Structure formats: structure tokens, C-alpha cells
Amino acid sequence: WLMKSLGVGTVIVCDGNTLIGTISDRDIALANAHQSEPVHNVMSREPVFCHENDLLHDVHEMMRDRGLNALPVRDFSGTLSGIVVRAG
């Protein structure tokens, strides 16, 4: 799988620049998905995200409280602008 070859546990899913979901190794395991399964069948929809000017402390707390290893970042127009990844 692409995620394994890149050494990442979460991938953000976009339609153009618009964030539409995330898919994690946990999502794949829980769905018991085969590698030929379309991403949209397994991904988490309406993902949690932060904004570009959120404080790092608040972002860290959000990730910790929700058990997230990665958090998409959006600007105020809703466009995906990055991802925050937990060190580890």
C-alpha cells in the first residue's frame, strides 16, 4: 500500500483543494479492507481539522484528546493548507 511505502499512518483525502476526509491505517484495519477497496468506502468523512492561526497548544490538545496522529490544516476559505503530524 502507498501509506506503508511512505511510512505514514494517515493520508488526507481531497477533492481538488477541498478536504473531504482522512484515511488511516486504523480505518483500513477496522473495515478489514482489501487493497483494491476504493478509498471513499473506507475513509473517515467530515474529518477534524484546525485552522492556520490556531495555537499549537490547542492543536496538540485536540490531537491528544481525540487520539489523532495527524490533523489537516485549513485556511479560512476552507482550502487545505497543510497537515500537522505528531512526532513520534
Gist of the model:
The chain is α+β, with helices and mostly antiparallel strands. It has helices at residues 2-6, 25-31, 39-42, 56-66, and strands at residues 10-15, 18-24, 44-45, 50-51, 70-74, 80-85.
Order of helices and strands: HEEHHEEHEE
Beta fraction of the residues? 25-35%
Number of helices: 4
Give the overall pLDDT as a whole number: 88
The major pleated sheet works out as: 3 strands, antiparallel
Q: Tell me the distance between the termini.
A: 21 Å
Strand order of the largest sheet: 1-2-3
**Helical/strand content category:** alpha+beta
Question: Percent helix among the residues?
Answer: 25-40%
Parts with pLDDT < 50 across at least 5 consecutive residues: none
Principal-axis shape equals globular
Cα-based radius of gyration, to the nearest Å: 13 Å
Report on the architecture of this protein:
This protein has 88 residues and is of the alpha+beta class. Helix content is 31%, strand content 32%. The strands form two sheets. A three-stranded antiparallel beta sheet has the order 1-2-3. A three-stranded mixed beta sheet has the order 4-5-6, with no helix packed on it. The radius of gyration is 13 Å and the shape is globular. The protein starts with a helix and ends with a strand.
Features:
88 residues; alpha+beta; 3-stranded antiparallel β-sheet; 3-stranded mixed β-sheet; 6 strands; 31% helix; globular
